[in-house]
Fold this protein.
Amino acid sequence: MTENTGVSDDTAAVRAQRILAQVRAIAPGTVAGYGEVARRAGLPGRARLVAAVLSANADPSLPWHRVLRSDGRIAFPQGSPGWHEQLQRLRAEGVRVEAGRVRGQAAKADLDDHVWGPGG
DNA sequence: TGGTTGACTCGTA
DNA sequence: CTACGAGCCAACC
């Protein structure tokens, strides 16, 4: 009845939890892209959803600052409060950021964590 | 019920 | 390097 349309039982809350879990899985000193996080969470193409989830998150322990755009840039407008905070948090973990952009290329986290990691 | 918005991404010019 | 358009999907009004 009321077929589930096969869409599975994942609700918005469940998807959000999966996304948050992936964000927490980003190792310190490394970064990941929105699309990257979305894909790891089983939601390819839902980069905007990741952004929506982060904007709604209230967990101070969430390493949201490790999430960047595909260009390796901070998603906030440069100069905005959120931008400054993310920049500071990244630098605090040893991530080199220039002009709001992560050094080299973006988001390779578990691939380059041993290269770009702390102490790089 | 339906249009607008957004911490996005990609291709093209 | 910037600018623009199209695609995308959930939240909001």
Notes: Residues 1-7, 107-120 of chain A have pLDDT under 50 and may be disordered. Residues 33-35, 38, 45-52, 54-55, 64, 67-71, 74-77, 82-83, 86 of chain A lie near DNA strand B (CB under 10 Å from a C1').
